[in-house]
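Thanks for the sequence, V.! I ran ABC transporter ATP-binding protein right away. Repeating your input here for the record:
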Amino acid sequence: MGGEPSGVAAGATLLDVRDVSLRFGGLRALSEVSFSVEKGELFSIIGPNGAGKTSLLNCISGRYSPSEGRIGFEGRDITRLKPNKRAAIGIGRTFQNLALFHHMSVLDNIMVGRHHLLKNNFLTGALYWIGGAQKEELEHRRKVEDVIDFLDIQHVRKATAGTLSYGLRKRVELARAVALEPKLILLDEPMAGMNLEEKEDMARYIVDLNEEWGMTIIMIEHDMGVVMDISHRVMVLDFGRRIAHGQPAEVLADPHVRKAYLGEEDVEDPFEQEAPAATPGAAVRQLSA
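Predicted structure:
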């Protein structure tokens, strides 16, 4: 797949990150990281463990506040905007470690993702309930059911989230983020801990969210077969700094990337799989062929 996002005008920037640095006391997690993401793009961030990938997503989602730099979304400076305000303007995310309400049903977990879309508030709640809350509730339920159908989790919609397999819980967390109807969705290792079949399914869902649902995606993922196959562009971090950035083939060929992953340049390709035809990326190629 790879290449430029289809149907996206050049320069249609959705997210603009400029010279973002992040420090925790004397530890510098990010150092002057800059990049932009276009509307409709599937943009991946890779790098060794401890490279600063999740810290960067936390800065974009508002969980962390950068020590220096600026983050712009649709031309608006959101550097100091609180996380709930960022969700309200269309930034959703999943987490490296599952963040579901384990005691709640799958359906209720996904409904939480639509909380910011509710129109009633403390002052208007009573009147709104009389006038339109029931209609709104039905509309929210319909949207949630669309997400449930898309991610093929109809059979567990009433199940308690904590009783599900790990792969299904990851899918439910993705469903909750999608239910927010985000313009930009941040996926932090969406395939971590999954078996091959689960990875193939998740890769297909991510591609469909991007191509059919029109969502712009920033993804952190360690499976290079998937990253290089489905991403439009890839950025590589190492020790909190950007060391490479471009289309998948360009990044694969970059000696700095090889050195960051293996510590030397004259070694076997770190991105080759033992059986290329069986990788999740290859499965996505076959599905989209």
